[in-house]
Design brief:
single chain, about 450 residues, alpha+beta, Cytochrome p450, 4-stranded mixed β-sheet, 3-stranded antiparallel β-sheet, 18 helices, 13 strands, globular, iron ion binding
């Protein structure tokens, strides 16, 4: 579907199309993206349609609301996530999970010469890290010998069904099933009930035992918010945003590395110049010096953004900078996936994986966020962007330095590009089966 939209957008003289049957205007024009996300921000909220789709799962969480509710949560989250202490806390969690869970799991697979679904590993890893960051507890979902917890299973199911609502031919279908409490909507209600029970229990225990000495998001937000249901909505929203996006970005990054061993070699060369040979995980300061690694990560997400498109709803009749007329109530979608493949945006080599396009004399350089809206832009720019990047770079660098990871031969021979499942984030169909071998480093 994303490739079809890309094809249509490339043919459009303005980089904008209108799908009449869906009432959806889709654009890959950076000027339009800036207009929607910044210039006329107030005219393009998420809207009631979007809120209805994710309302049962996210409630009044930051990613599902507009207006004053959004402004309050945005201000509160900006204040908390900007603190040095919480960024240090997040980095400690990631480093701990890499050393205590990720390394042992992949080393075991290496010794047994088993094929591993790297996407599933990343999904479990990112769930554990974001859960610890949000609730201060470790669900240990990366421990494959243990059964998947009720919370993880319910969360996965609720996310999947909520995404299916978004791609439903008609919202009337899922809304009717919801009223009748049948089929997928019955499963969704049951899954959300499980999520609520476990989340409520954690919140009650934290209030009972005290929260002032904890660094997790729940504890920090408790000092401001007394409403436990509201707390649940906020934390579950961050859980959803921080889990699948990170897993998606890491999956496609390692798929691209398998196709471009020269990029992997360049990352190793860069780290060898900055890190001590005995180190397994780079420090926060060392990663800031790794410009090529940052460029490779950005370039990967240019071609395969974790969220492939995003939609808003027009409040009042409007005209986009490219002259497109937008009627009140129209869904307006900016298409990150297509934008990364537009020659008019990125040049004639737009389909090539070239980290060097982000470097100027070896130094990483940002581009206009509306040309690269992977983290959105304007007032809704992703607050967790920096922490997500640190997590992704920590995992990627640690695995590249410790293991040789190769896509399984059967997949490499039959798949030229990843195929994605429909969903809120880009999930590779069939996962990413890989073979892992622990590197034998020279003593010199």
């Amino acid at each position: 579907m994303c490739d079809w939209y890309t094809h249509l957008l490339k043919k459009s003289p303005t980089g904008t199309i209108h799908i009449h049957v869906l009432g959806n205007t889709v654009t890959a024009n950076p000027d339009n993206v800036e207009y929607i996300l910044k210039t006329r921000f107030e005219n393009y909220p998420k809207g009631k349609h979007f809120s209805a789709i994710l309302g049962d799962l996210l409630g009044k969480g930051i990613f599902n609301v507009d207006g004053d509710l959004w402004k309050f949560q945005r201000k509160m989250a900006c204040l908390e996530l900007g603190r040095v202490s919480i960024r240090s806390y997040a980095f400690e969690i990631v480093s701990s999970e890499i050393q205590s869970m990720l390394f042992p799991h992949l080393s075991c697979a290496s010794n047994k010469e088993h094929v591993v679904d790297l996407q599933e590993v990343f999904r479990r890893f990112s769930f554990d890290t974001i859960f610890r960051f949000s609730f201060g507890l470790d669900p240990s979902s990366l421990e494959f010998s243990l059964p998947v917890s009720d919370f993880v299973a319910a969360f996965d199911l609720a996310s999947k069904i909520s995404a299916e609502r978004a791609i439903s031919v008609s919202p009337l279908i899922w809304k009717l099933k919801r009223v009748l409490n049948m089929g997928s909507e019955y499963k969704l209600r049951k899954a959300i009930r499980t999520i609520n029970v476990l989340a409520d229990d954690v919140i009650k225990q934290r209030r009972k035992l005290g929260f002032s000495t904890h660094n997790d998001l729940l504890s920090r937000f408790m000092g401001t918010i007394d409403d436990d249901q509201y707390l649940r909505d906020i934390v579950i929203s961050f859980l959803l945003a921080g889990r699948d996006t990170v897993a998606s970005a890491l999956t496609t990054f390692f798929w691209l590395l398998a196709q471009h061993p020269e990029v992997e070699a360049a990352i190793r060369d860069e780290s060898d110049q900055i890190m001590d040979p005995t180190q397994e995980i780079a420090t926060f300061e060392q990663m800031r010096e790794m410009h090529y690694l940052q460029a490779a990560m950005y370039e990967s997400m240019r071609l395969y953004p974790p969220v492939q498109f995003d939609s808003k709803f027009c409040q009042k009749d409007d005209i986009l900078p490219d002259g497109s007329l937008i009627e009140k109530g129209t869904r307006v979608t900016y298409h990150q996936y297509a934008m990364g493949r537009m020659e008019r945006v990125w040049g004639s080599d737009c389909l090539e994986f070239k980290p060097q396009r982000w470097l100027n004399d070896g130094v990483f350089c940002q581009v206009n966020p509306f040309k690269y809206p992977v983290f959105q832009g304007g007032l809704r720019v992703c607050l967790g962007k920096d922490m997500a990047l640190v997590q992704m770079k920590s995992v990627a660098l640690s695995l590249i330095m410790k293991f040789d990871i190769r896509v399984a031969a059967a997949v490499a021979e039959t798949s030229q590009t990843p195929r994605f499942l429909p969903g809120l984030t880009a999930t590779v169909r069939g996962g990413l089966p890989v073979l892992i071998q622990e590197r034998r480093l020279s003593p010199n």
